[in-house]
Amino acid sequence: MSTVPTWVQLVYLGCAVAFILALKGLAGPRTARAGNLLGAAAAAVACAVPFLHLDLDHVGLILGAVALGSLVGAVGARRVQMTQMPQMVALFNGVGGGAAALVALLELEHLVEDGAPTFYLVATAFTILVGSVSFSGSVVTFAKLQELMTSRPVTFPGLPVVFGLAAVAALAVGVVLSTASGASVWLGVGLALLGLAVGVLLVLPVGGADVPIVISLLNAFTGLTVAAGGYVLQNVVLLVAGTLVGASGTFLTLLMAGAMGRSVSNILFGALKGGSTLGAGEASDRPVRSAGPEDVAILLGYADSVLVVPGYGLAVAQAQHTLRELVEVLQARGTRVAYAIHPVAGRMPGHMNVLLAEAQVPYEQLREMDDVNGEFKQTDVVLVVGANDVVNPAARTSPGAPIYGMPILDVDEARQVVFLKRSMRPGFAGIENELLFDPKTTLLFGDAKATLTKLLGATKAL
């Protein structure tokens, strides 16, 4: 018989329903803001309820920790740049996994003293291990994306053996910890340390292009960890919220891997086999056709239809507002213009949609890859701004390329292509883009914002 008051159970049920509705709201750009607010409100209510029905110790310390965490989170979220969103997600995700592991470690002492059933110990060992993996792995992903360390795969002789031994040792300790006779707090600490090591060794071999996918996978890990923690603490709302995060993170990971034309195992372990997770390579010195803003403005001025392909370079340059102005000028001249969005444009799904929404670009102008790919053949000019791998024909034509099989935007089928690029360095995949050397391609070199500003001025002057 549960000792949780009925009103508390009803409030938790309401919070769980709100979480589900929040996820549904987050599925579309028009409802994402409302969904986010609903989920945050439900989380705040769920955090407040224990203060109302439990006889808590150290309330002052708890409230101080909540206040400090809220302050750090609010300041961090307000100051983070749009291009740094994946790093922020990685950090928040890691903190969640680490917190769940610490809570499980604290509960382990009580479970051992009370002689808890085996399944509770299994759930506790799972929470400690997976939460530790998620924490340390997320810290490494943050360091890679923030360029605090190399974004290229990090490997060393014997890495597969070391990783395998660490994983087997962690599983063995977890099994022992799950038995009533073997459970102890110190064994739990050992399991946490092994989990930290496994997390680091798991993410080190992953290249920069694949890090966002690993962040999503670790997010799923954290969700499952929180769900297991909810079972240990007999907290329904934690169980439901963790399950939702785990399930959605798993689906997102599979969708992102599918959009890259890769399997999750290849992303995680490809570098160990000398395979496909690569970082940035060297700039090419092959000749290309380049032009100035005035020449490109004339090209756009004569076009009846233009498709814009935004990428991470646009976000880095914060050029979304200037790009929107350019599109408005072209539309005022009678040109049909739309944005072609690759599923992983930027660094995470939805990243480019949020960036363009911030610049007040109407949702109706955003076209998904499957919807727009058939229109490139009839398009006069494609303007590629800061994108590379997602328009590289090698994904279709070069079986040995690391991105081979990845669905791409069929920009090479358009009549004319204009690339806005800072340099001839390849994209995250580290390979040349043959489209840059195509006779119908023109390159406009420079920072995206500065170049678009000049192009906007030249277009207005026509």
TrEMBL record:
Q: Does the keyword Translocase apply?
A: yes
Chain segments annotated as transmembrane? 6-23, 35-53, 59-77, 89-106, 118-142, 154-177, 183-204, 211-231, 237-257
Ranges for domain NADP transhydrogenase beta-like come to: 9-456
Location comes to:
Cell inner membrane
Q: Which membrane topology term applies here?
A: Multi-pass membrane protein
Q: Does the keyword Membrane apply?
A: yes
- Name of the protein: NAD(P) transhydrogenase subunit beta
Please name the source species. Nocardioides perillae
